[in-house]
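Hi support team,

I submitted a single chain yesterday and got back a structure, but I'm not sure I'm reading the token output correctly. Could someone confirm the output below corresponds to the sequence I sent? I've pasted both exactly as they appear in my results page.

Thanks,
R.
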Amino acid sequence: MSTDSLLVPLSQLDHGYLEKLCMTIGYVVKSVDVSALQAAATRVVDKWRLLAGRVVWSKKLSSWCILVPLKGDVSNRLTFTVTTLTTRLDSSFVINDSLSAQLLQRPPFEYFCHPSAQMPIGVCSSSGSPIISIHVTQLSNCVCIGINCPHGVFDAVGLGQFIHALDNELNGRPWEAPSFPLSGPETNVLQEALDDLEALPSMYDDIHRESTMYDSFRRELVKFSLFNGLALYRHTLNEYFWGSVEAKVVYLKGETLGKLLRDVKEEVKSIDNELKVSTSDILVAWFLKAMYAKEMSNTKPVSLSSLISVRNTLEKKYPAMKGYSRAYIPSFSLNKKADLQMRIDNAIMFCYLPTLMKQQLNEMSVAQLAILQRQVVELAADEAWIQGFNRYLRRGLKGNMCFRRRGRNDEPYLFTNQVIARFDQIDFGSKTYGVFPFLKPLEPARIIVLNKFKDGYLILANARSSSWRSVMDAVEKLQPISLKAHL
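Hi R., thanks for writing in. Yes, this is the structure output for that exact sequence:
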């Protein structure tokens, strides 16, 4: 490898389904200095050389890698495009500060991503395109800004690190770009940690728990192949075109949000004083119940797969990572074990709620469902679960993961909590009206995404129109003002 470049491998968690996707975080703001934004983003890429790299496939490592230029001009390693339209963005796409509970539309994707930038990791590699692209659409009453990347390179926390660096650079605050991983040339500290776990004997001392874990993996995941990929693709298209699936956003804030959280936590305490649930547990439970409040079918199953970060769990194995805050971008420690916390690539795995019939879902309270979700997350947040998932991914799926195409009556949801990425904490110099995530080219037909925004939370979801009517009723119960104009 030349002294002018460095090869940084990604991990096996970046392969499979994620490498087929692009991730976009879209912002709607009142105005922005386009020249200043482009200059700031270019400086971030220049300082943080990893972001200026090219995605390549290494036959030697059997892995996607980033070939990082250590010298020279990298101003061409950021794609920055601008479109100007005379169109106005309707109020149904904008958060209304006077409402404490609101249902709104997600703005069109083309406002946030130029067609040339919709590149999964493989296309990005073959074309030599930059990893990061930014698209600005100037409308007559606002500006849309989209930050785009291949999902095979970034998870939400990783993309959030770039956004926080951009915020600092844009607003003249000092920041330090992470130096390169010090775990050795052509190595990946996350992959090393996963390999260490895989080499150990099974960490489950309960055969039943281990068997249940693998059953949930087999229920939800299959090896990626042309047949399985096309089956999932066809099923997703059917959901969009025949199932009338559409993306909308629920915004809850202030006293409305506070009352919901207090009421649920009080009920949890009454069930068991030792139990704790998080805000995300409560909001995903509330949303699932809201969708199916009017359905009592005992023949249609609902399942929920949750994406969880393994960073904190692996800190137990790498104690030197503790104390590294996600509130800013520090430089890497000289101890190589600190590298893991600051990696940008995917450090996520799945955990699963038991499949519930719609009637069961309706009979449970929000508190009971939130407790079940918390128990599942805590079960998965240990090294035994990570070891099992890693073994299933590597041995059972041969490193290529794909979601299983479900039956016609099944309704599987994927939940991802992006609050930890703090996407809302960037100041473009004017009022921000909303933050909207996208996954392309084909977003899962049933997905729930949680983000923080100002003093509230945004719940973005893809769901059928009948489910959205039920959610609308639940939102109106929280906010007495009629919201039908926002449908």
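A quick pointer for reading it: Residues 319-345, 481-487 have pLDDT under 50 and may be disordered. Let us know if anything else looks off.

Best,
Support desk
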